[in-house]
Amino acid sequence: MELKGAQIVFYYGLAFLVLIMAVSLIRARSAVHAALYLMGALIGVAGLFLLLHAEFVAGAQILIYVGGVVVLFIFVIMLVNVREEITEATRLFTRQEAVAWGLVGAMTIATVIALRREANLVPPAGALMEEPLALAEDTQRVGSALYTRAALPFEIASLLLLVAIVGSVILARTRRQEETFD
Q1: Is the dihedral of CA 117, 123, 124, 130 positive or negative?
Q2: Higher model confidence: residue 145 or residue 180?
Q3: Between the CA atoms of 103, 106, 107 and 108, what dihedral angle is there, to the nearest 10 degrees?
């Protein structure tokens, strides 16, 4: 599939957003902030799926990963009551990292400007309707693949989520019981 015009700009914008969120996730000092950065990265990936006309996969990305897994992470963080260590103030980036991120940003801006000069970013009236939305067809293909060829990985993923939920409940219940006995 070839991206055209504004889609290219959105692609690079979303890719840059996902990259920034992923680096921020790795560098986050707070577990809650890391979970929020993960949420931002997953939303950016869902946007990339939308650009590829995989609407079902984008919706599943939002519902399952952002709406389920990240919220579960945040609940576990709150239930376990992670205490943050007091650290001395340090720079967010070293000088080399700041230069590298500046170069990445400058290259992104230069790419967007170059593409903007070459491409007509405003499509003509009716051009967006040339390709009919095949959402039902896409959903049918994903569903048949999910329940035929990928049935075992799907079931394993659902079991892992179940184990994570049960584990968080056990951790929360054990912690409350210890507090009542003290």
Answers
A1: positive
A2: 145
A3: 120
DSSP-assigned states of every residue in 20-59: HHHHHHHH-SSHHHHHHHHHHHHHHHHHHHHHTT-HHHHH
35/25 Cα distance (integer angstroms): 7
Burial 87-112 (b: 16+ CB within 10 A, else e): eeeeeeeeeeeeeeeeeeeeeeeeee
The answer to whether 63 touches 26, Cβ cutoff 8 Å, is no
For the ranges 6-20, 25-39, 90-104, the lowest mean pLDDT is seen at 90-104
pLDDT, one tens digit per residue, over 48-74 is 998 888 888 888 889 888 888 888 888
Give 109-124 as a DSSP string. HHHHHHHHHHS-SSPP
Show the tokens assigned to 152. 């075992």
The answer as to whether 178 is a domain residue is: no
| SS3 category, 99 | helix
Please give the distance of CA 21 from its chain centroid, rounded to a whole number. 8
Q: What is the CATH number of the domain that holds 59?
A: 1.20.120
* Number of independent structural domains in the chain: 1
Give the mean pLDDT of the chain: 76
| Pair 35, 74: CB distance under 8 Å | yes
User: Is there a domain that residue 149 lies in?
Assistant: no
